[in-house]
Specification:
With 430 residues, the protein is of the alpha/beta class. Helix content is 46%, strand content 12%.
Length: 430
């Protein structure tokens, strides 16, 4: 029955896409792109640029269903993350429309939509014309993470929240409750630090996005901000210095070499039972559930990052190229790939679904307990930086954070230097 319903919905969708072809050709997101040469109907072929994750891989296995049901061929270009972002940027800047649908993060929007004006706004396709992206099933915070200038530019596929993972067996043995505050987290880490059997925690200390995402949660948790109300950087504040010092304190209870840990290495150290607590991206859940890669199956749980302040959002979504010549087919794919029906099928393998109807489903929560904690965390997960200079800013700050972690700078020196770097970057971009 489920398959029949899916076929009916998708056949209807293909039929009504002819009604939105004119809207697609108007190129609301890219003023200079050519009108799509679809003849008012899907061309039947799109190119999808993506980077592999467990959830992405599981969705790609479902593609034959979509292709059979719609007649739309999806050519998948699946490459590593850095190469993917480079190809996206080049394609959008050159306005060639080589990739119709691709991976978008909230931090990309200031460049892709604002600077390059190269993403198609998705909230302009009305339900009255048969296009229902299920926007009411997204939390306002999540929709805002993929919006720019008042429009939604990408449909969320995976939440990728920053969660506090903890060993339930070790916490129970020590008589501890899941940490609710930053102070409790730091205290728990020290109490549970018992190398070589298990260190207290790990840190994503690698220069670049890993250490930036690790650190910014502590900054916000301590009441600090990256910018003031005038968008001036605020990295040399007491809160920023305190957040850096807290990372240095945690590092004393972490395995050697955490200054080189990426998010994958951090998840691996937790999955292998090397640490008791860790701040992990929720898209690492599949590896924690897999007995072939995890020694802690049935011995771990999530809790939202301690405190009540904002946490960093690293989720990703599918965006449509404003210069695509296959917009109706691209829209059909985005609608299918981000539908509640498809996303629900990915949950058993550990996905972090963005839709409220899945996160808040009591039956699913009982079966997949990570959903409840993710639902709680999603309401305060925000994109850390919305600026076209995002990558330059992160590179500069992360260099100083890593220097503090390796001991070549004090926390105060690192923050003062990062403040100067940010001021120069933003001044040059103005």
């Amino acid at each position: 029955m489920r398959g029949t319903v899916r076929v009916t919905r998708l056949v209807a969708l293909v039929a009504v896409l002819t009604l939105v072809a004119a809207a697609c050709s108007s190129n609301k997101g890219g003023g200079e792109s050519p009108s799509p040469s679809t003849g008012g109907k899907p061309s039947g072929e799109i190119t999808f640029l993506v980077s592999s994750t467990p959830t992405v891989d599981n969705m790609l296995k479902m593609l034959p269903q979509f292709e059979q049901q719609t007649g739309i061929k999806v050519n998948v270009v699946n490459i590593d993350y850095d190469a993917m972002t480079q190809k996206e940027t080049l394609d959008l800047r050159s306005k060639t429309g080589q990739y119709d649908v691709f991976w978008v993060e909230g931090t990309f929007l200031a460049r892709y939509s604002g600077q390059l004006n190269a993403l198609e706004p998705l909230d302009t396709y009305p339900q009255s014309q048969g296009v229902d992206l299920g926007l009411s099933d997204l939390s306002p915070a999540l929709a805002n993470n993929f919006s720019y200038g008042g429009h939604l530019y990408a449909m969320p596929f995976e939440n990728t929240l920053m969660m506090a993972a903890y060993r339930t067996d070790l916490y129970q043995k020590a008589g501890l409750q899941p940490p609710a505050t930053l102070a409790e987290y730091v205290s728990d880490v020290a109490k549970l630090n018992s190398p070589p059997s298990a260190y207290g925690t790990e840190i994503m200390g690698q220069q670049g996005e890993p250490i930036f995402y690790e650190w910014v949660n502590w900054l916000w948790g301590d009441g600090g901000q990256l910018f003031d109300s005038s968008d001036k950087p605020t990295l040399d504040t007491p809160q920023a210095v305190k957040a850096t010092e807290e990372l240095l304190t945690l590092a004393k209870s972490a395995p050697p070499g955490v200054a080189n840990y990426s998010w994958d290495q951090a998840a691996t150290s937790f999955a292998q039972g090397q640490v008791s607590t860790a701040v992990l991206f929720s898209d690492q859940t599949p590896s924690l559930l897999d007995p072939s890669s995890s020694k802690v199956v049935g011995k771990w749980a999530y809790t939202p990052f301690p405190g009540t302040n904002d946490t960093a959002f690293g989720g990703y979504a599918w965006g449509m190229n404003a210069f695509s010549k296959n917009k109706p087919a691209a829209l059909a794919f985005i609608q299918w790939a981000t539908s509640a029906e498809v996303l629900k099928q990915l949950v058993p393998n550990g996905s972090s679904p963005p839709r409220l109807s899945i996160l808040n489903d009591p039956t699913l929560q009982a079966k997949y307990p990570w959903l409840e904690a993710e639902g709680e965390a999603s309401s305060r997960a925000v994109v850390p930086i919305s600026n076209a200079s995002y990558f330059d800013l992160v590179d500069a700050l992360s260099t100083d954070l890593n220097a503090a972690l390796t001991g070549s700078k004090t926390a105060q020196e690192a923050m003062s230097d990062a403040q100067s770097q940010w001021e120069q970057i933003l001044s040059s971009a103005a």
